[in-house]
Amino acid sequence: MNFMRPSLALLCCASFLCASPPARTANPDPYEPLKLYDGGWQVKITKPEKKPDHLVNHCARTGTFFSCEQELNGKTVALVIFLPMGKSDSGGLEYLTLVAQPDASKPGDWGRLVIEGSTWTYSWTEKNGEKTVAARNVNHFKDKDHIHFELQRIEDGVNWKTEMAGDEERVK
What we know:
By secondary structure, the chain is mostly beta strands.
C-alpha cells in the first residue's frame, strides 16, 4: 500500500497498509495490524491497467508512532506515519495518518485510517480548484499476503467513484 495522495503510492499503501488482521481481543494492540505492511509487495493496477510495480515497506514502531518508509520500484517515495486514536464509532481501530515526501515538501493534513475486520479504509479531503473533495482508499484483505484496493472520490456528496483499483501480493 502506498500512502501518497492520490498517487499509486497512496493506493498501494492503503492496500499495503495487506493481510487479514489478527483476531481481536478485548483490548487489541493497535500496532499489531500495521505490522502486516512490512515487506515487499507486487502491485498490479487493473483500473486503469498498467504494468506491475514493486513496493517495499520498511515499518517500525518508534514509541507512540508507527511508521513505514515506502520504496516504489527501488525509489523512496514516502514516509507514512500512523498515530493510534482508539476505537471508531463503529468499533473499528482508528488511526490518524500523515505522509511525508522525500523532497521535504509540506505534508498535507492528517488523514484517517479505520480498520474493521478485513477492510481498511484510508480517508482524507483534498482541494480540487475551489471545491473540497472527499477521497478514500479501501483495502480488502483476502489473507495476509493478498489485498484488493480501490481508490475512490466523492464529488456529489452521495456516490463514490472508483478511479483506480488493483491487487497487491506479498513477495517472498
